[in-house]
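Residues determine shape. Next comes a sample protein:
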Amino acid sequence: MASTSLTTTHGFVGRGLAFPLQADATGSFALVEGVEAVERAIRLIVSTAPGERPMRPEFGCAIHEHVFAPINPTTLGSIAFDVERAIRQWEPRVDVIDVEVYADEEVEGLLYVEVVYALKTDNDERNLVFPFYTIPEGEE
């Protein structure tokens, strides 16, 4: 069985404009491809609240609904569920393996969302960690 080459992976993963928009060294719009394109897409999904895009109101992740929630096992589980569901729905190039949410030990209200995933082309496990800030009780 032939192994998947990097060219095939890039062909499957694709290439697109860097977001946020930025210029490259030549002054043209910067492009991203391969693993970087997938990582940016996942970050975009998680950071976009449903309803934020008028032409695609369902796009995004419901993680933002937990900003004022107490930090407890129920909230952590709900955040993990929402992140996993959004990535499965909006990013067809990956298989989500696990999503874990845990609180920072020193900064009150700071959570980390760790997403473990694999590109469907090579099954190589990768992970991304997103900071997510909540409003601690009493600071509303």
Q: What stands out?
A: The first strand starts at residue 15 and ends at 17. The beta strands are 15-17, 31-33, 94-103, 110-119, 125-133. Confidence is low (pLDDT under 50) at residues 1-10. The chain is about 30% helix and 25% strand.
